[in-house]
Amino acid sequence: MRRMLLLVVLVAIVLSGCGGGDDGAGDSVKDLVTSLSISDYAGAWDSLHPAQQRVVPKDLFIRCGVEGENANDPAIENLKVLSSKKVTKDIPWLGEVDAREVKVRFTQGENDREAFYDVVKQDGSWRWTLTERSLNAFEAGNCPS
């Protein structure tokens, strides 16, 4: 009986470290993708890492989002977090930091898509980051292509 109880406790401990143990990183990415999918570019910018916000003017980010919209794009459905893993990355305008790499899958129309997002904990909340290519375009006053 004692062995069985110990086995159950060990399995529970092991399983608690799998999947959703990302301290909310996956939920923050789901919130970001949802914001972008409903054209809430201001909300998406608000959750961008502050170091990158200093490079990306909010009005330019919103304008680029609106200009890049395609009215024919179907809504995003079935958004799921596939994985969330701890990584150390050299992220533009942040340097080498501990981050989470979050992989999501969603359906858009007839297509299933997967995407990766890097998020960094800042003042107790997860903040997403942009690629160097996107940041360079914003820094030059342009929309990323």
Contiguous low-pLDDT stretches (5 residues minimum) are: 1-20
The best one-word shape is globular
User: Strand content of the residues, in percent?
Assistant: 25-35%
- Structural class given helices, strands, pairing? alpha+beta
Q: What is the straight-line distance between the termini?
A: 62 Å
Share in helix: 25-40%
Cross-sheet strand order for the largest sheet: 1-2-3-4
Q: Give average pLDDT, whole number.
A: 86
Largest sheet: 4 strands, antiparallel
Cα radius of gyration in angstroms: 18 Å
How many β-strand stretches? 4
Describe the structure.
The protein has 145 residues and is α+β, with helices and mostly antiparallel strands. Helices cover 39% and strands 32% of the residues. It has a 4-stranded antiparallel beta sheet, with helices on one face. The protein is globular. The N and C termini lie far apart (62 Å).
Salient structural properties:
single chain, 145 residues, alpha+beta, four-stranded antiparallel β-sheet, globular, disordered N terminus
Topology:
Layout (H helix, E strand, L loop, with lengths): L1 H15 L8 H13 L3 H6 L3 H4 L4 H10 L8 E16 L3 E14 L2 E12 L2 E4 L3 H8 L6
Antiparallel strand pairs: 1-2, 2-3, 3-4
In short:
39% of the residues lie in helices and 32% in strands. The protein is α+β, with helices and mostly antiparallel strands and 145 residues long.
